[in-house]
Amino acid sequence: LVWQNSTYGDFYTKAITYDAEKETLTATADNITTAAATDNRGITWKDWSFVGASAFYAILTEGSLQTDFDISYPAAGASDFSGAGTQADPYLIKTVGDLVLLAKKANSIPESEYDGTEGSNKFAKAFLGKYFRLESDIDAQGYRLSPIAGDWAHRFAGTFDGNNHAIKNISIATAATNYTGLFGRITDEGTVRNLTLDKPSVTSRGNAVGAIAGSSTGTIDNCHTVNAYIYTDGQAAGSIAGTASTITNSSATGSKVTVRKGYAGGIAGEIDKLVENCHAESTDVTMYSPNTGYP
């Protein structure tokens, strides 16, 4: 969001392709790709626009931002995880860099390796049969992370054991993309358990938004959020998950959930199978006019 306007509606940034000869403009993506950083205080990018409800605001070929503070860029600390990914010897998550690496690997599985089917469409079951374990508390203050398995075609199918540790101050924000959370999508075989997110901030313009998972058809067990901030311009959001099949032994405390188009809850926006031994306390849920057609 770059401009809130009560008369013309809100405006957002969008990457574009501009053909000066034909004088045509095409929106290509919600997320703008910036140039490689040359220092810790400057960001530059090209070919972008402000986009409102019915019009482009301008054709902008150059963009830059200078800060008076150092910018921290999370980076994968290694090309692979410690451990073998088995139940006896799981992949170990020790740092923010390991979370970055997990998201990078889950989100980059090529179509040629898709191994799941829904209707006539195929998708990737990322880390099917693999195990992960969080080794200690992680403080992600100052970083903005991408969802792990963060789109329709990439879904987390492994087991992530938080080992009763916490990830603190995590920040995840997407544009009009659906499935936003630490895990964007968890498939039937996937499990996330024994994890606390302390003061997570998860925001989106899309549907299915939650701190632990945007959408889950797997199992979420013994997961907790404390002082979570969850916001979406779309539909279906909760402190734990946007939409889910099974959530057990989990809680939300001191959280704020705001949904513009319906399906909001302290634990989840929608549960279609089982919610058991879960509670939300001191949690504020605000929902605007409901809508249909969530993913």
How would you describe the shape?
Answer: globular
Q: Kindly report the average pLDDT value.
A: 85
Low-confidence stretches: none
The major beta sheet can be summarized as: 11 strands, parallel
Q: How many helices?
A: 1
Report the count of strand segments.
Answer: 26
Q: Structural class of the secondary elements?
A: mainly beta
The fraction of residues in strands falls at over 45%
- Helix content percent band: under 10%
How far apart lie the N and C ends? Answer: 22 Å
Output the radius of gyration. 19 Å
Can you write the helix and strand succession as a string? Answer: EEEEEHEEEEEEEEEEEEEEEEEEEEE
What do these coordinates show?
The protein is mainly β. It contains one helix and 26 strands. Strands 5, 8, 9, 11, 13, 14, 17, 20, 21, 24 and 25 form an eleven-stranded parallel beta sheet that branches. Strands 12-15-18-22-26 form a five-stranded parallel beta sheet, with no helix packed on it. Strands 2-1-3-4 form a four-stranded antiparallel beta sheet, with no helix packed on it. A hairpin with a 4-residue loop joins strand 1 and strand 2. The chain is globular and about 60 Å long.
Show the helix and strand layout.
Layout: E1 12-19, E2 24-29, E3 42-51, E4 60-66, E5 91-93, H1 96-107, E6 116-118, E7 121-126, E8 131-134, E9 138-139, E10 154-156, E11 159-168, E12 171-173, E13 183-186, E14 191-198, E15 201-204, E16 209-210, E17 213-226, E18 229-232, E19 237-238, E20 241-248, E21 251-253, E22 256-259, E23 264-265, E24 268-276, E25 279-281, E26 284-287
